[in-house]
Amino acid sequence: MYLPRRNAEELVLEALQSVRRLIGLEVAFISEFREGRRVFRYVDSLLEDPPIRVGASDPLEDSFCQRVVDGRLPELMQDAARVAEARTLPVTAALPVGAHLSVPIRLSDGRIYGTFCCFSRRPDDSLGEREVKTLRCFADMTARFIEEQVIEEGRRRDLLVRYAGVLDGERFATVYQPIVRLPDRTVVGHEALTRFVDEPVRAPDIWFNEAAEIGLQARLEAAAIEKALRGLARLPQQTYLSLNASPQTLLSGVLEPVLGTHPFERLILEVTEHASVDDYSIIARAIEPLRKRGLRIAVDDAGAGFASFRHILRLQPDVIKLDNSLIRQIDSTRQYRALAAAVQRFAEQTGSTVVAEGVETEAVLRVLLDLGVGHAQGYLLGRPRPLDDPPEPRG
Q: Which positions ≥6 away from 341 have C-beta within 8 Å?
């Protein structure tokens, strides 16, 4: 069964507390062997000032843990001062170390992750093989939880390397999809969309969601916007450019420097939500200085879920974009037509403009015109393309 990272950590800490209390020693800890050092990952202690701290480390060769794993020290020492090999380590007398138990933590592929240890400053001659078996049992149990974390940490490291390459090498491209005024089919704007060139080939949303997982969402979105803005001067002067940003990126403070001195009156910022927003007032305050400079705000994915309607009510956008999942069935589904009509009436009363996304058929186009929706984008009206590509002939 999959356990979220936080729950796994709680279970490991509970195991530490349980085994320390069960065996009756002062300190229990789990160490990781990493690059020649022993790193303390989890610590439980009844001491007010424990001698070790989470995140601290020391040379692996100078530790009890290494000597237990390679057999120079036994797993159980009732009194470390009576063991010749332990006396060679300064910490034995300095701490001092009295009773000490330690067993390896082995992952499923046989690798040694580190050790599960308990110790007290006083000797304890009552400890025996039963306590060693108890410690091994807990070590085997926690190894399963730790392995999930090791796999996840490895995945995150791989993602960090991948996205560092994507950002440093600017390994993505911008394509521009026309936004059309429907009554006369005039292009009034373009939405800038990002396409990634690295393998594996995946939808852009997956790339941005992964970047969010590793704390690089704002950097990646800002880099995509910066690249898209390079094409603004090549677009017809009477058209606008629509850019995508998440609330998290808006709040990060990276957008204003990226937007710089570009003509804000030609820009629309589409706010997308892929994570919950707890306080819209913070977002509204972050947007306000940009709006005062002429930037317009659009809410994306309207009709795709309740979150998009919260966006509309709280952010009071200039543009409302009807989601393509709604538009593609609007000619065949009465409920979708009713929803689109309601959004259109709302926009008329609040001074917003509705843009329908995902228009692919003339039948859909006719329904939109009947509903009074005046702007749209989609394959029927123009596919996303680089600015260097010639425009598609209208059929």
A: 371
In a domain, 37, yes or no: yes
pLDDT at 275: 55
Mark whether 91 and 218 lie in a shared domain.
no
CB-based contact 181:374 (threshold 8 Å): yes
Question: At which of 93, 120, 154 does a domain end?
Answer: 154
H/E element holding 154? helix 129-168
* Claim to verify: residue 192 and residue 65 sit in the same structural domain: no
Residue (of 313, 189, 293, 206) closest to 243 by Cα position: 189
Closest C-alpha to 142, from 169, 113, 111: 113
Local confidence band at 386 (pLDDT 50, 70, 90 cut-offs): very high
Q: What is the pTM of this model?
A: 0.78
The span from the CA of 97 to the CA of 79, in Å, is 8
Count the alpha carbons within 13 Å of 128 in the hemisphere toward its beta carbon: 2
Quickly state the pLDDT bin for 3 (edges 50, 70, 90).
Answer: very low
CATH of the domain at 261: 3.20.20.450
- Residue 114, domain CATH: 3.30.450.40
Distance CA 86, CA 100 (A): 10
* Residue found by looking up tokens 């060693």 in the block: 132
Taken as a whole, the chain contains a residue count of: 395
Sheet holding 27-34, edge to edge: 57-59, 37-45, 27-34, 112-119, 100-106, 76-77
Q: Which domain holds residue 309?
A: 170-376
392 within domain boundaries: no
Measure the CA–CA gap between 303 and 308, rounded to whole angstroms.
Answer: 7
